[in-house]
Design goal:
- This protein has a seven-stranded mixed sheet with strand order 3-2-1-4-7-6-8, sandwiched between helices. Strands 5-10-9 form a three-stranded mixed sheet.
- Helix 5 (161-180) packs across helix 6 (189-199).
- It has helices spanning 17-27, 64-67, 69-73, 77-80, 161-180, 189-199, 229-232, 244-263, and strands at residues 2-9, 34-41, 52-56, 85-89, 93-95, 111-115, 152-160, 202-205, 211-212, 224-226.
- It is built from eight helices and ten strands.
Amino acid sequence: MKIAILYICTGKYNQFFNDFYSSCESKFLKGRADKEYFVFTDDLSISNQKNVHLIERQCMGFPLDSLLRFEIFMTIKDKLLKFDYIFFFNSNALFVDSVGIELLPSNSEKLVGAEWPGKRKPFKHPMFYPYDRNKNSAAYIAPYEKQPYLYYMGGLNGGEAKAYLNMISTLAQNIRRDYDAGIIARVHDESHINKYFRAHPCKILSPEYCMPEEWITPEFTPKIIFRDKVKVDQYFNKGRSSSYGSKIKKSALIIKDALIWYLK
């Protein structure tokens, strides 16, 4: 079994790779799969491991580093076609327990997605999901659809090689079309992933495989976490306010946006 792992780290994000690599090597299908890592980075000294392929990529800044990731992945399509499975992990992903074939797609579903493990019950209604509301965007999701609403995180997805390459090819084209028209989806690549998964069923990963570190409780045992970046480097705080007033203002904007979605 051959698995390609896609990973982007530039600038300050380079500091996450070695921990991710070590955890993935020791805990993900150890001894059961040949894993090769395709790392897009501006630090070509980040690793000298034989199964790590460093691909020079300069930091484009926010949001382009995230928004254009599928376009970046398509530059190595010929290499990726040689694998059985392809997975993308966010730079702050970390395996903290053994993970086996349960991460792979099922027979009926060729793709794998991770549902956001939302913790705030009042905001679990679809009206509060941060779907793209712009009808001119390829990522637009409408209200009142009969199909159940789920919200997928952008930091972990994968699948059988052919199905995954079909997905990222479509997403790269949709994002580029939007961008050339002056449109950037609300949550960038994540918005487009959510639109794609509504039309292409995927295996849905439970919270054990996609839990933000800051949400972990003593009674919960995760297998893959997304590290609290601020704990690693205060650079990632970027002036965010955690004051009570800021939280009230943010909640009010979420409610306003949710109502507008139904009224448009």
